[in-house]
Amino acid sequence: PYGDSMVGPCGAPERVVNYTELSHLYMLQHRFDEGFGVLSKGLRAAGGRAAEAEETRRLYAEVGKIWEGQYDFATEGELEQLRPRLKAALEQAVMDDPANPGNYEALGQVFREEKNLDGALELFQKAYDRVTEPMVKKQLEREIARLLLQRAKDREKNKDYENAVAEYRAIVERFPTSSNAATALFQIATVYNYRLREPWNAIDAKLEYVRRFPDSDRCPDELVEIAGLYRRANEYDKAIETFRAVISQYPDYDGRADAQWMIASLCGGYLRDKERAVEEYRRFVELFPESDRC
Question: How far apart are the first and last CA of the chain?
Fold first, then answer.
């Protein structure tokens, strides 16, 4: 009852949804050769100018469902044989239409399912080198950065901290203004602080974060943590200076009162400068008269 007339010359070959639905029906009937044949045509149509975004999204969702066997069209044994065919179809689609980022994303997800981040990175790097369209290159940059970030996190999880830091640093250097670079710097500081126990390197990473991403909501928190690291390193004047920056630079930050209180506490408890401590406590009362500490 079905046929390629849905997508052939008498049908609507530009409608990606037709390929999706026909491939789905073939798969349910265990007509896998025909199903993959139609799916391959759909992957080519997805890169066409007439392709609609929602229909294209459905096609790639179908690819994921086939890989995972979501609608019970095959046994696990059959799926083990079908997955290499699906991967091959995506690889061919990438070769046929190097400007379609959807094919790269779908194939990249296959590599992720296989726990093959190196293969995915190689794929997206080749794609990046091949395409010329700025928007596609930008999408590929984001995907490469995400994969590098995942690989670095995997190294960190495996306690390979030195190489994890190197991977995170590579992201910062290659994508210096991206959100992934911000995440990488945050992770670098975390590894240095909690894993490698190198507080000065943690401070440097946090300062770099604040410098590179001054508009980030995390900046005042990062400065507070830097001040805490200075305090634990007995660098009390630097801690005070950093707390002072929090108060002056972030007028809407909820932690300003705590920062001023810490300044006063450092002056009295660590520097043993009672006059300076009294002055800072007075400043606290002036700046934060509604505080319960007053």
Answer: 82
As a dihedral over the C-alpha atoms of residue 66, residue 69, residue 72, residue 75, rounded to 10 degrees, the angle is 110
Q: Where are the alpha helices (DSSP H) in the chain?
A: 16-28, 32-45, 53-68, 76-96, 101-113, 117-130, 134-157, 161-174, 179-190, 199-212, 219-232, 236-249, 256-265, 274-287
| Residue 153: how many other CB atoms lie within 10 Å | 16
pTM above 0.85, yes or no: no
The pLDDT tens digits for 224-267 are 999 999 999 999 999 999 999 999 999 999 999 999 999 999 99
Rg (CA), the chain: 28
> What DSSP character marks residue 271?
S
Q: What is the tens place of the pLDDT at every residue in 25-73?
A: 999 999 999 999 999 999 999 988 889 999 999 999 999 999 999 888 8
